[in-house]
Design a protein that fits this description.
- Helix 9 (166-174) runs antiparallel to helix 10 (182-213), helix 10 (182-213) packs across helix 13 and helix 10 runs parallel beside helix 15 (335-352).
- The protein is α+β, with helices and mostly antiparallel strands.
- A four-stranded mixed sheet has the order 1-2-4-3.
- It is globular, with a radius of gyration of 23 Å.
- The protein has a single domain (2-94, 201-386), classed as Cytochrome p450.
- A hairpin with a 2-residue loop joins strand 1 (69-74) and strand 2 (77-82).
- It has helices at 2-22, 25-28, 44-47, 53-63, 85-94, 117-125, 127-133, 140-159, 166-174, 182-213, 215-231, 238-242, 245-257, 291-295, 335-352; strands spanning 69-74, 77-82, 263-267, 286-290, 353-357, 382-386.
- It contains 15 helices and six strands.
- Keywords: Endoplasmic reticulum, Heme, Iron, Membrane, Metal-binding, Microsome, Monooxygenase, Oxidoreductase.
- It comes from Culex pipiens pipiens (Northern house mosquito).
- This is Cytochrome P450.
- One of its GO terms (cellular component) is endoplasmic reticulum membrane.
Length: 388
């Protein structure tokens, strides 16, 4: 019995020391790190569903403002947070060729109603565990449907030339050196759908919520919509949509305050010291860009809690670390479609309805820590009243 106890204690001690050693990875590479803890690294509150992922990442970013980048741990996985805005711009745009390896999206995207924290947490934060436990990033029904749809379209277009759309481009790549499999084509197609649909519906909801809270901003947007549409005898066109610049400002401010992607990441395929950067990233590192943290940094956006569309007036390139869709050659593929869908929805609703809060006393939003996407606890309850 004594030998069994001794063996168990020795095994636990060795495991603990191995884990502690793993959590000194960045220190051993000469990069500052925070204070990770076993077993969740710097993300214990996220795994315990006590803290929204984006807000915790924002806290880590703000703690490290004096550094160009800082090392953190997603469970035992070492990851870098880029903090310096010039470094971030270099990673996303100027030195994008140095951060070109994102890996393949094996298994597609999560079903549009299933952005459950624990599933995604295992998929991203502990990829080895998700393989052992058989955890998928998609529901099997969604995966089977998308692959089946791609195969049917492929068979049809072998006999009849198709349109030059996204699916056709991906199908043509199958005969190139890339030799894409049906599963990869289906994954990209589903990613495009989710990137445009889920993000645009959520952005529309949060924008309407802010307009309901800020009646003066809502009225200004409605005046612009009424003025532009009246010139076309009530018809909404792509051309007059482009003239609604204040509505664009409202959408951009919603992107800033409620970003759908809390972060974006780039993998380093080799030990890299890119131009315009000050630190060297070890081979195999993942660099995370804290989008919510940047968007709520008062250094770049004074009074970040306020909804102020005027921030984006007369600023075509903003000159700020504003990356709602990422940036550079690997920015979101569906950003134009998503933005257009959001704008059309807002214009159609604001042209016909006044929006108000169902409960004016509950005029604050808490992000749901059980989800990775920006989701309000209890939902967003609004009242629509037909305009005269």
């Amino acid at each position: 019995m004594f030998l069994v106890i001794f063996f168990v204690i020795s095994l636990l001690t060795l495991a603990y020391r191995a884990f502690r050693y793993r959590l000194t990875y960045w220190t051993r590479h000469g990069i500052p790190q925070l204070q990770p803890a076993i077993p969740f690294g710097d993300f214990g509150p996220v795994f315990r569903q006590k803290r929204f992922y984006g807000e915790l990442l924002q806290d880590l970013y703000l703690q490290s403002k004096h550094l160009p980048l800082v090392g953190i741990y997603l469970t035992f996985r070492p990851v870098l947070i880029a903090v310096d805005p010039e470094l971030i711009k270099a990673i996303l745009v100027r030195d994008a060729d140095c951060f070109s390896d994102r890996g393949r999206w094996q298994g597609g995207a999560v079903a549009v109603d299933g952005f459950n924290l624990m599933r995604i947490a295992f998929y991203f934060l502990a990829p080895k565990f998700k393989n052992w436990l058989g955890i998928k990033f998609v529901d099997s029904v969604v995966e089977s449907f998308m692959i089946s749809m791609v195969r049917k379209i492929s068979e049809h277009r072998e006999h009849e030339k198709g349109d030059q759309d996204l699916i056709q481009m991906l199908l043509e790549l199958r005969s190139s050196d890339l030799a894409l499999k049906d599963e990869i084509v289906a994954a990209h197609a589903l990613f495009f759908i989710i990137g445009s649909y889920e993000a645009s519906t959520t952005t529309t909801s949060f924008c309407l919520y802010e307009l309901a809270k800020n009646v003066d901003i809502q009225q200004k947007a409605q005046q612009e919509i009424d003025s532009v549409i009246s010139k076309e005898e009530g018809e909404l066109t792509v051309e007059n949509l482009a003239d609604m610049r204040y509505v664009d400002c409202c959408i951009n401010e919603t992107y800033r305050k409620y970003p759908q992607c809390q972060s974006c990441s780039e993998d380093v395929p080799r030990t890299t010291s890119c131009r315009n950067t000050t630190s060297q990233s070890p081979s195999g590192s993942t660099v995370v860009i804290p989008l919510l943290g940047l968007a709520n940094d008062p250094e770049f956006f004074p009074n970040p809690e306020a909804f102020l569309p005027e921030r984006f007036e007369n600023k075509p390139d903003y000159g700020l670390p504003f990356y709602p869709f990422g940036a550079g050659p690997r920015s979101c593929i569906a950003k134009r479609l998503g933005h257009l869908q959001t704008k059309v929805a807002l214009v159609m609703l604001l042209a016909k309805f006044d929006i108000a809060l169902a409960n004016p006393d509950a005029a604050s939003v808490r992000f749901d820590p059980k989800f990775f996407i920006t989701k309000a606890v209890g939902g967003l309850n609004l009242v629509f009243t037909k305009r005269d």
